[in-house]
Design goal:
The complex is a heterodimer of chains A (239) and B (439). With 239 residues, chain A is of the alpha/beta class. Chain A has one domain: P-loop containing nucleotide triphosphate hydrolases (Rossmann fold). Chain A contains 8 helices and 10 strands. The chains are: A alpha/beta (239), B alpha+beta (439).
Chain lengths: 239, 439
C-alpha cells in the first residue's frame, strides 16, 4: 500500500538546515493498522504529511498504492488525496460554517459524484460513526469526541484505501479517546489500512505494528501478531 | 460546482457581517459614483436617431467679415443667414430639407375670460416632420405646397394641444396666433429627443430639456416678419433697415438640415457646398478663406459641445474613485480570505486542487460584487434623483435605462472579480500542511 525507501526531507532557511527525515524506510501493507510514535520533533508529522501527499520530499522513493508519486503534479496529488486517502486530524478540522452533512460532503464534491450518490455516502458514513441523526447540526453543537467521529465519517465517505490519522485522540479525554480508537479498529477490521501518529503508548501498542521514529529515522519496528490483539476488539464489528 | 461555490459564497456573506457590509458598501459607492456620471454622459452623448444619423447633415458656411478673420478659426456663429438658408432650400439636394428658427407669440383665446397663452415654437419646412420622424397623435404635417403658399397652418405639441383643447382632437380648428388665424393641421404625440438635436440652439429649454410647443411653416413666419426668438449674430456693421433688410443681411440665425438617401450621398452635398461657396464668392459674399463644413448628427452634437468637458472629467474622476474603492475592497477581501486559510488547508487536504480553490474564492468575490451591484443600483438611482433635483436641465439626462442597469451589475461584478484576484491567488498559495497542524 505504502512504501518509502531512503527518503529524506530537509527544511531550509537562510541560516539553518533541518533534516526532518533521513534515510527513512517504511513499508505498510494493505489492511495493516500501523501506529507511529516518537518524541516531539522526531519527524512523525513530516512523515505523515509526505505520506498524505501534503508535502514533497527531497530524495528517496515513495510509492503509494503502486504509484511512484515523486514527480506527480500538484493537481494529480490533489486527486490522489481525494480518491485514495482519508485524513483525521488532532484538531478535527471541521469547517465550522457547514453542518455535518455538508462537512462530510466536501471531499465528495471534489470527487464529482452525483447528488444522489453523495447523499447516500454521507448518510452511510455518518451512520457508521453513530451520528446520522445529527446531520443538520453544526460542529460547535457537538462534543470533541463527536466532532472527531464526524471527521472520521468525512474521511470514510470517499472509501479511501489508506486512512491517515495525526493524533486523533490528542484532544479527547480518556473515555472519548478509547471510543474513537475502537471505531478506528472497527474500520481497520473492515479492510481499510490505517497509519496513525500518536503520543499515547497505550494506543500505540493496540495496533498490529508500531513504528518508532527518532531524529527522522525509523528506530525500531515492533511487530505484533494479530493473535496478540484482544479477541473482543478483533471480532468487533462496525455496527 | 458553480452552484456549490455560489451557495458557499452566499453563506460566507453572513459569516462576518461587518466586514461583508464594508466590502459591499465600498464597492456599491464606487459603482454608484461611476454609473451616475456615466449615465449622464451616456444619455447626453447617445445617438438620438441611430438608424439615420449619418444621413442627416448640417451645413455651415462662414459669412463673417474678412477683416476680423483669423485663418483656420471657426465661424463666430453656428447658424446660417437667411440668404444661405433659402438657397439651400432651393438646392433640391437630398430627400428632405428644412430651415429652422425659433418663433414666439401670443395665442389669443376666443373667450375673453381666458388668459392669453404663449406659444414658443419653431418655424420649419414641411420636410422637418418626416426628416426627424416626428410622431403624430392627430392629423399630419402640412404639405410642401403649403410651404410655398405661406399657409397659416400650425402643428401643436401634445402638451400645448391638451392645454388649449383638453383631450379633444383640435385638427381643423382655428387658433389666433401672431395676430393671424392659423388652422391646426396636426398634433404631435409625445416627442422629446434627448439631446434636442434638431435645434440645439433654442429659447425653450436648451439642448437637453424643454419643448417646442408648436410649428409653423418657415416662409409663413418670414412672411409675417416674425423675429428669431433665439440667438442671432450680426457681424456686419451696416445693413438695410426693416425686416427685409434683416433678411438680406449677413446676420446668422437659421439652422439648416439636409437628409440624404444614403450616407454616401454626403459627398454630393459636400461638393455642392464647395461649389456654392465659390459661386457666392464671385458674387462678393463668403469672402473668408474658410471651407464650408458639413456635420452629421453625432458630429454636430460634438461640434455644439452637447457633452461638456466637465462631464467627461466627472466620469474620469468617478472611475478614479471606483479604482480607490477597488483597492479598499481588495484589502478587505485579503483580510476576509486570510482568515479562511484553515478552511483552504482542509479543502486542499480533502482533494481540492488549487484551481478549485481559485474558482471557489473568485465566485465568492463575485457574490460580493452582485451584492455591491444591487446596493450600487439603489445608490445610483438615489444620486441620479439628487442630481435631477439640483438642475432642471439635468433631470432629462439623469435617467437610468436598461443598458445602464445591466452595466451597473456588470461593472460591480467585474470590479469585484478584479478586486478578488489578488486575495484569491493568495488563498490558493496556502500550504495545507501548515494550516492543518496549526488548527
Amino acid at each position: 500500500m505504502l512504501r518509502m525507501q531512503n527518503l529524506s526531507k530537509v527544511y531550509r532557511t537562510q541560516m539553518i538546515e533541518t533534516h526532518a527525515l533521513r534515510g527513512f524506510e517504511i513499508h505498510v501493507r494493505e489492511g495493516e493498522f500501523v501506529t507511529v510514535t516518537g518524541p516531539s520533533g522526531s519527524g512523525k508529522t513530516t512523515f505523515l504529511n509526505i505520506a498524505g501527499l501534503l508535502e514533497t520530499f527531497d530524495e528517496g522513493e515513495f510509492t503509494l498504492d503502486g504509484l511512484d508519486v515523486k514527480n506527480v503534479s500538484d493537481d494529480a496529488r490533489s486527486r490522489l488525496r481525494n480518491e485514495k486517502l482519508g485524513f483525521i486530524f488532532q484538531g478535527f478540522n471541521l469547517i465550522p460554517d457547514l453542518n455535518l452533512f455538508d462537512n462530510v460532503d466536501v471531499p465528495l464534491r471534489y470527487r464529482g459524484f452525483s447528488a444522489a450518490e453523495r447523499a447516500e455516502r454521507i448518510k452511510s458514513s455518518l451512520t457508521q460513526v453513530g451520528l446520522a441523526s445529527r446531520m443538520k447540526h453544526y460542529p460547535a453543537e457537538l462534543s470533541g469526541g463527536q466532532q472527531q467521529r464526524v471527521a472520521i465519517a468525512r474521511a470514510l465517505a470517499g472509501s479511501p484505501r489508506l486512512l491517515l490519522a495525526d493524533e486523533p485522540t490528542g484532544n479527547l479525554d480518556t473515555q472519548m479517546a478509547r471510543s474513537v480508537m475502537e471505531l478506528l479498529e472497527e474500520i481497520n477490521a473492515r479492510g481499510t489500512t490505517i497509519l496513525m501518529v500518536t503520543h499515547d503508548p497505550e494506543l500505540a501498542v493496540r495496533a498490529q505494528r508500531n513504528v518508532h521514529i527518532i531524529d527522522g529515522q525509523v528506530s525500531d519496528l515492533v511487530r505484533k501478531m494479530p493473535s496478540l490483539v484482544e479477541p473482543q476488539r478483533a471480532a468487533s464489528s462496525l455496527m | 460546482m458553480f452552484r456549490y461555490y455560489f451557495l458557499l459564497g452566499l453563506r460566507n456573506l453572513a459569516r462576518n457581517p461587518i466586514l461583508t457590509l464594508l466590502m459591499v458598501l465600498t464597492l456599491a459607492v464606487g459603482v454608484a459614483a461611476s454609473i451616475s456620471t456615466l449615465t449622464i454622459l451616456h444619455v447626453m452623448s447617445g445617438n438620438p436617431i441611430p438608424h439615420k444619423s449619418a444621413r442627416l447633415l448640417v451645413p455651415l458656411v462662414d459669412n463673417g467679415p474678412v477683416k476680423s478673420y483669423v485663418p483656420g478659426s471657426q465661424p463666430e456663429d453656428r447658424q446660417l443667414s437667411y440668404r444661405d438658408a433659402v438657397n439651400f432650400q432651393k438646392s433640391g439636394l437630398g430627400e428632405y430639407r428644412t430651415a429652422i428658427y425659433d418663433v414666439s407669440g401670443a395665442i389669443e383665446s376666443a373667450r375673453p375670460d381666458l388668459p392669453v397663452e404663449q406659444l414658443n415654437g419653431l418655424a420649419v419646412d414641411a420636410d422637418f416632420f418626416p426628416m426627424f420622424e416626428v410622431p403624430f397623435l392627430y392629423g399630419s404635417a402640412w404639405s410642401r405646397a403649403e410651404d410655398t403658399s405661406r399657409a397659416r397652418v400650425v402643428v401643436l405639441s401634445r402638451n400645448k394641444s391638451e392645454k388649449l383643447f383638453g383631450k379633444d382632437n383640435p385638427v381643423g380648428r382655428t387658433l389666433r396666433i401672431f395676430g393671424q388665424d392659423f388652422r391646426v393641421v396636426g398634433v404631435l404625440d409625445t416627442w422629446s429627443p434627448v439631446p434636442r438635436y434638431p435645434r440645439l440652439i433654442n429659447s425653450s429649454g436648451g439642448g437637453l430639456s424643454g419643448e417646442d410647443q408648436g410649428y409653423i411653416p418657415f416662409h409663413t413666419a418670414t412672411d409675417l416678419e416674425l423675429p428669431n426668438n433665439a440667438s442671432t449674430s450680426c457681424q456686419a456693421d451696416e445693413r438695410d433697415p426693416g425686416y427685409q433688410g434683416f433678411l438680406n443681411s449677413e446676420c446668422t440665425w437659421i439652422q439648416f438640415w439636409f437628409q440624404t438617401k444614403s450616407a454616401a450621398d454626403r459627398v454630393a452635398v459636400a461638393d455642392y457646398l464647395r461649389g456654392y461657396v465659390a459661386e457666392q464668392r464671385k458674387l462678393g459674399r463668403l469672402m473668408r478663406d474658410a471651407p464650408p463644413q458639413l456635420f452629421d448628427v453625432m458630429e454636430w452634437m460634438r461640434y455644439m459641445e452637447v457633452v461638456s468637458n466637465d462631464a467627461h472629467l466627472a466620469v474620469w474622476l468617478s472611475f478614479g474613485f471606483l479604482l480607490l474603492c477597488l483597492v479598499n475592497t481588495t484589502g478587505l477581501l485579503l483580510a476576509k480570505f486570510s482568515a479562511r486559510a484553515p478552511e483552504v488547508g482542509v479543502r486542499r487536504a480533502l482533494g481540492a486542487t488549487r484551481g478549485a480553490i481559485f474558482r471557489q474564492f473568485l465566485v465568492e468575490a463575485g457574490v460580493v460584487g452582485l451584492a455591491g451591484g444591487v446596493l450600487g443600483l439603489v445608490l445610483s438611482a438615489a444620486s441620479l434623483a439628487l442630481i435631477a433635483k439640483q438642475a432642471r436641465t439635468l433631470s432629462v439626462v439623469a435617467q437610468m435605462d436598461w443598458q445602464m442597469l445591466a452595466l451597473t451589475f456588470v461593472l460591480a461584478l467585474v470590479a469585484s472579480l478584479l478586486a478578488g484576484l489578488l486575495p484569491t491567488w493568495r488563498a490558493c498559495q496556502v500550504t495545507p500542511a501548515l494550516q492543518l497542524k496549526s488548527q
